[in-house]
Structures are given as structure tokens and as C-alpha cells.
TrEMBL record:
Keywords noted in UniProt: ATP-binding, Cytoplasm, Ligase, Nucleotide-binding, tRNA processing
Enzyme class: ligase
EC number: 6.3.4.19
Molecular function per GO: ATP binding; tRNA(Ile)-lysidine synthase activity
Name listed for the protein in its UniProt record: tRNA(Ile)-lysidine synthase
Length: 439
């Protein structure tokens, strides 16, 4: 016997029965109306997490002003609370994408840790997504379509109707005598997805009646292929995660040599996996930046600029440097109480091990031409000392320098660039990390 919509929903949501709350993305359209009705009906005889509906009001058309009242009436009848969230849609090349970004930003803000957002996308939506992305030249990851679940904000998003056709939803809605909103913009074929829905898919299904099911199944096959690629990437990235010579520099980095041993395709696969949480990735035409960085001379310090930061190569290692890394104040600071840690504006914290040297002490940053007295070695140029320690170029400008009056005493974290000896003292710097807002 073919499982009912209720049975499908319960099976899909079984892993989330212990979530602290379920939120329903409720536009008032057919898909979300059926989802709301199913869940409200289930809650009458099943132990479910608390339900709340969220209606995002985009304000893009006059007709939409009446939708919150409709959604409120539906929720009142179902016994489900409703939260209405107005948003501002930023102008851009794609109104569809801008509205989607605003909508999901609102959802992310609405759900707390351990909570779940449920959306009503169905099998036809999945087929449209696959064809749309195929026409845009997406890779395997893009062609996997919409995942059944993914992280969202501090919680999760789930699409429990992805294996259900729009026809099944319509049948259920008419049997239950549900009313829903028909968005006038859904008939506007100037929007890409509407064009596919109203112009392309009717012709596809006229010739191949199972086209929607086939495309949705293809997305599933590609999702399995992506899982295998991710497993391979995990192994390759793990092999390149060798210890850094600068353990205090808590930025993502990889040893370059293990990556060089891989084929070009495996290199890109590993880097896509590693960079995905850090920055939007470039299209295939702009991956030449990786080749340039990888193949530069050994003494070069090339940079590959990406959307949210830069990839640097220093001493046969690649480092991810977030865009916000340059946002710090290099103004000199006095340190009147060196027995206490010193907070550096936008640049972490300084502290001494053992007793601090006598004052007056201050902190500055490299300007060029600095010289310091190193025990047993005499006067040395700071540039040479940094080269000897192989300090990555991108960090040199924000390495704190300790001064006693006008005398340079130490470079933070570099024992070879310090006047401290034995157990006298050492200057330690805890730089900002990606978790502190640099990503």
C-alpha cells in the first residue's frame, strides 16, 4: 500500500522528534498550507515538539499586504501560533535571489539552538532546482539539488516533503478543503523558475511523463556522488593538516606538499571542501588563481584573492586569511600595568610570562628599519630576524613590538627576537581567531 502523506512526514521527521521546537515556514501557499495542516493534525495524537509558524512579509507587491491576515486566520484555526517577520529585500540583479536571501536570514534569526525550521518544497521543486542549476553550469555539489536537511543559523532546516509531488499536495488540499494563497508573481515567466515551471516542464512532461521523478532521482544519485567526493576530500585535507611552525597563529592552514602530490582534480576537490565554510568559491574559470599560487617560486609569497578573504602561500604552507584580518589599529599603545594582559584594538591580547621588564613600556608595530639588540648576537635588523624565523609575510605587519622607551625589546611570540633571557620573561601574543569575528 502506498504510504500516506502523514506516514511519509512522520518517517522523514523521526530524527527530529526530540527537537526543542518545530517552526514552519508559512507563506500561505499550497505547499506550506498542506505542511501546516499535516503537522497540526499530527500534533493532536502524536507527541511532537511545540509548533510555531513563521510568515516572512517581503512587501514586494500590494497583494502581499493581505497575506499576513490570511496566514493568521489559518493558524488560528489550526491552533498554531504565528510570528510575522517583515524584511527588507535588497535591490540587485536577481529579485528572486534577494528575496530568498532576506527570507532565510529572517528564518535563521528566528530559530534557537536545537530548533528546526520546516519548509514545504516538494519533488517538483527539486526537479526545477536541478534543471535550473544545470543550465547555470553548476558542478556536482550544485546538481545535488536541495538537501533534505542542513544547518540554518543556530538550528536546522528540514524539507520533509521533498519526496512528495505537487499533484499529491494538491489532492490532499482539495480533500481537506484547504484554502491557500496564489501568489500573482508565480505566473510571471520573467522569473527563471517560473519560466521553467510554466514553459519548459509542460513540454518535458508531455514528451517524458516521468521527467520530474527522473530529475529528482538524478539529484539523489548526484548527492551520493558528492558524498563520495567529500569523503575523499576529508582524507586529502587530513593528510595536509600537518602541524604549523606557528601554533599560536590560529588561522586555517594546510601543508602544500601533500596537496601537490594529488591530481589537479583531487586538489580542487580538497580545496573546495576545505574552503567551503570560509568563503564563497569561485567559478571554474577563476581557479587559475590556485594554479598561480601553487606553482609560484619557492621564495615567493603569492596570494589568491577570494570573496571573503585571501589564500596566502608562505614557506610551503597555505594560510586562509579572512578579509577582516586587516581591520586593526596599528597605533602605538602605552602599557602602564604590564602585570596585567593588554587588549590590542582588533588585534588580540598581550601578556608576559614571569616578571615583566621595567618600564616605561609601550607597544608598536613594524614601520621598517627597526633594529634591536639580541643577547649574544649584537644588533640585528628586525627584517632579518623575521626572515630567520620564517614568519609569514601577512602576519608581520600586525606582530606587536615591545618598546622600553625608544628601545625595541622584543617581538611577540618570537624568542629569537627578544632581549629576554632564560627565565627572565617572554612576551606572548594571542592573536584574534576566525571565531572572534575574522571570518
Amino acid at each position: 500500500m502506498k504510504p500516506t502523506l502523514t506516514a511519509k512526514l512522520l518517517q522523514t521527521l523521526a530524527p527530529w522528534r526530540n527537537a526543542s521546537a518545530w517552526h514552519i515556514a508559512f507563506s500561505g501557499g499550497l505547499d506550506s498550507t498542506v505542511l501546516l495542516h499535516l503537522l497540526a493534525d499530527l500534533a493532536k495524537n502524536q507527541s511532537l515538539p511545540p509548533l510555531q509558524a513563521i510568515h516572512v512579509h517581503h512587501g514586494l507587491q500590494a497583494a502581499a499586504d493581505a497575506w499576513p491576515a490570511h496566514c493568521q486566520a489559518v493558524c488560528d484555526a489550526a491552533g498554531v501560533s504565528l510570528r510575522i517577520m517583515p524584511v527588507q529585500v535588497q535591490a540587485g540583479a536577481s529579485l528572486e535571489r534577494a528575496a530568498r536571501d532576506a527570507r532565510y536570514q529572517a528564518f535563521a534569526e528566528a530559530i534557537a539552538p536545537g530548533e528546526l525550521l520546516l519548509t514545504g518544497q516538494h519533488r517538483d521543486d527539486q526537479a526545477e532546482t536541478l534543471l535550473f542549476r544545470l543550465l547555470r553550469g553548476a558542478g556536482v555539489r550544485g546538481l545535488t539539488g536541495m538537501p533534505v536537511q542542513r544547518p540554518l543559523g543556530e538550528g536546522w532546516l528540514a524539507r520533509p516533503l521533498l519526496d512528495v509531488s505537487r499533484a499529491e499536495l494538491e489532492t490532499y488540499a482539495r480533500e481537506q478543503q484547504l484554502s491557500w494563497i496564489e501568489d500573482p508573481s508565480n505566473g510571471d515567466s520573467r522569473f527563471s523558475r517560473n519560466y521553467l515551471r510554466h514553459q519548459v516542464f509542460p513540454q518535458l512532461t508531455a514528451r517524458w511523463p516521468q521527467a520530474v521523478n527522473t530529475l529528482a532521482r538524478t539529484a539523489g544519485h548526484l548527492a551520493q556522488a558528492q558524498e563520495l567526493l567529500d569523503e575523499l576530500a576529508q582524507l586529502d585535507v587530513q593528510a595536509a593538516q600537518l602541524p604549523s611552525a606557528f601554533p599560536w597563529l590560529a588561522l586555517p592552514s594546510l601543508a602544500l606538499a601533500p596537496l601537490r602530490d594529488l591530481s589537479d582534480a583531487r586538489q580542487r576537490n580538497a580545496l573546495r571542501y576545505w574552503l567551503a565554510p570560509l568563503t564563497p568559491l569561485p567559478d571554474s574559470e577563476h581557479w587559475v588563481g590556485w594554479n598561480t599560487l601553487r606553482d609560484a617560486k619557492a621564495d615567493a609569497q603569492p596570494v589568491w584573492r577570494l570573496a571573503d578573504g585571501q589564500l596566502h602561500r608562505c614557506n610551503d604552507r597555505i594560510w586562509w586569511v579572512p578579509a577582516a584580518w586587516s581591520e586593526f589599529s596599528d597605533t602605538a599603545l602605552s602599557w602602564p600595568h604590564p602585570q596585567n594582559p593588554l587588549q590590542l584594538p582588533g588585534n588580540g591580547q598581550l601578556y608576559f610570562s614571569a616578571n615583566a621588564p621595567e618600564g616605561p613600556l609601550s607597544i608598536g608595530y613594524r614601520q621598517g628599519g627597526e633594529v634591536m639588540e639580541v643577547p649574544g648576537r649584537g644588533r640585528r635588523d628586525l627584517k632579518r630576524l623575521l626572515n630567520e624565523s620564517a614568519v609569514p609575510g601577512f602576519i608581520r605587519g600586525r606582530l606587536p613590538l615591545l618598546y622600553q622607551g625608544s628601545r625595541l625589546l622584543a617581538v611577540a611570540n618570537l624568542a629569537r627576537a627578544s632581549t629576554g633571557q632564560g627565565d627572565d620573561w617572554q612576551l606572548h601574543w594571542a592573536p584574534p581567531t576566525c571565531d572572534q569575528g575574522l571570518s
